[in-house]
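Milestone M4 deliverable, item 7.
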Amino acid sequence: MCTQVITHTGPISSQLFPTEQRPVRIVARDLQADELLLAHQHPWAQVTYALDGVLQVFANQQTWFVPPMRAIWIPADIEHEVRTLEKSQLRVIYVAKQQAPINRNDCVVLEVSALMRELVRALSAIPAAGPREDHLVASLLDELAIAVSLPMSVQMPREKRLKTLCMALLAEPASALTLRDYAQQVGASERTLARLFEQELGMSFGSWRQQMRLARAAPLIASGQPLSAVAAELGYASQSAFSAMFKKTFGKSPSAFFKPQI
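Output delivered:
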C-alpha cells in the first residue's frame, strides 16, 4: 500500500477504494484542529482512529467522542461526518462490505490493540498487492472481529426543541440549568421535554446529561488536563465523584483508561 499522508479534507483518489482483489485499504490523513470531513457515505465499511488527537463523529443521530488510540467502526452505507477537535493523525481502514468483520449495523467505538496498530502500520508500508498484504489483511480482520467495544456514544434527538437543548448541553456540559430552565429557553413545557427524552432517547434528562458528560470527558482527559479540572469543567462536584462515575461506566479509572498502550 505504501500509504501517502493526505493533509486535506477533500475527496481522495478512487485508487484507494477497496476492491474485490484488495478488500482492505489504508488512508492516512494528518489534519489540523477543527477541520471537518463533511457528511458522506460509501458502499464499504471503515474504521477510523487517531494516532493522536481527538475526533468527534456524527452518524445515525448520535455523536461519538473518540480519544487517541481508540477507533470507531462505521458500517457501509452509513452517512457520517468527522471533526477533529485538535490536531490529529487519522488512520482510516476501508473494508469491503463482503469482508466486514463486525456484524452490526450501527457505529461503535473500539479498543485499538497494540497488534492492530502494528498491522495497520505494516500494511501502510507495503508498496503493492501480494501474499504479504493478504496475510496482514486477514490478521487485521481477525483483530477487528474481537476488538472490545466501548460505550462512548451520545444519542441525539430529531425533534427540534429537544435537539436545541441537547446541543446547548454539548456546548456547555457543566451547565447546572434544570429541565424547567431549558423548557423556558426552547419554548416547551417541562413535562413535554421529559416525555420527548423518554420517547426519542429512551432515557431521562438526567441520564442523558450524565452519558453526555462522560463521553465529553474523553477529549479533555486526552489533552492532558488534570482530572480535577476535567471534573469541574463537566459540572461534577468533585474529582472523586467524576472518577467513580467514569469507572462505573467504562470499567477503568480515567487514568487507566487513557494510559498509553505499549
